[in-house]
Amino acid sequence: MGEEDEGVDAQKLKRIAAASYDYERDPRWADYWSNILIPPNMASRSDVVDHFKRKFYQRYIDPGLIVEPMSSTGTSTRTSGSGTSTTPSPGPAPTAMRWDKQTIQFSVNAWVFVLALLSTLPLIPANLSNRAFRLSLLGTACSSLYSLYSLYGTPRAWNMQAVQMWLQSILATKDFIYFIYSLMFVTSNYCLRFALIPILCRSLEHVAKFLRHWVQPSSLSLLTLNLADKDSERQRKYLEELCVWVESNVTTLSILSSHAEVGLGFLLIISLFSWQRNFIQIFMYWQLLKLMYHAPVTAGYHQSVWTKIGRSVSPVIHRYAPFLDTPISVIQRWWLR
């Protein structure tokens, strides 16, 4: 009994220390709180903020602090003749999940990732693979369009000037680029599996970013998921490690996507020698590559790819095909405008 009392007293002191800690002066707290994905109505509740402060204190200051899971039920105040008493009111269903913007985006991107992966498997029948290919591109287009609508809304007025200003605000965004990218190949006559590499990278990044925040025990308690057993805890740990790995390799995924996007442009040029050639698609795709080269969100990766190509190809052209210098310089001037 004495040891238990000492343990309770120690935890009480730890909770007091956690409550009195100056979180606002710790820059890690601002970063930690900004990465917590919870509905706005819960983020404004003091008990929710205090809970995550204790989780922060446990992670960075005192691992010995025991943080109890958050209760999934709320409270309501009832007044009677004898006074005021607080009684629990029923909360949301145990398996209910709030379908906010992040959850919708996660669901669509997870669906896209599974379909794109299914389409690339070699043993899948051709008709099923082609359908998965187009559905994954269609899902990416819907996800990008929904993201654009969530962030930028619609034009203030449906006139030429307002629509032009709205288009200028979204033209260089990654969501707009992938929206156009997906539309180009979902309407194509043939299925280039190579085009799914950027789609896979994008959907994997979005899924990992969502799961990285929601697999935390404190966040999962908000979803009232049961992670008490060891198997679930082990699975959660492996999933979190995988998400951390993906988030730490976002640059690598972007480099892979940019290489695939540029390589796809040359594959489309080679397709001119096939009966399925589409001049309009090739012209539009190279216009999109030009946009990727100049757009701030993709410029760094695409410019790096083209620099490598120039270092490899330019000496060969100067030595064996100098007559190509003039047309290449004309193309470069158009490209850099």
Quick structural overview:
This is Transmembrane protein 33 homolog. It is built from 15 helices and 2 strands.
If you had to describe this structure to a student in words, what would you say it looks like?
This protein is mainly α and 337 residues long. It folds into 2 domains: 2-71, no CATH class; 101-214 and 249-336, no CATH class. The protein is 70% helix and 4% strand. The chain has 15 helices and 2 strands. A two-stranded antiparallel ribbon has the order 1-2. A hairpin with a 2-residue loop joins strand 1 and strand 2. Helix 12 packs across helix 14 (296-320). The longest helix has 27 residues, at 126-152. It is elongated, with a radius of gyration of 27 Å. Residues 72-97 and 217-230 have low confidence and may be disordered. One of its GO terms (cellular component) is endoplasmic reticulum. Pfam families: TMEM33_Pom33 (PF03661). Residues 68-95 are annotated as: Disordered. Keywords: Membrane, Transmembrane, Transmembrane helix. It comes from Chenopodium quinoa (Quinoa).
List keywords for this structure.
mainly alpha, elongated, 2 domains, 337 residues, TMEM33/Pom33, transmembrane helix, PER33/POM33_regulator
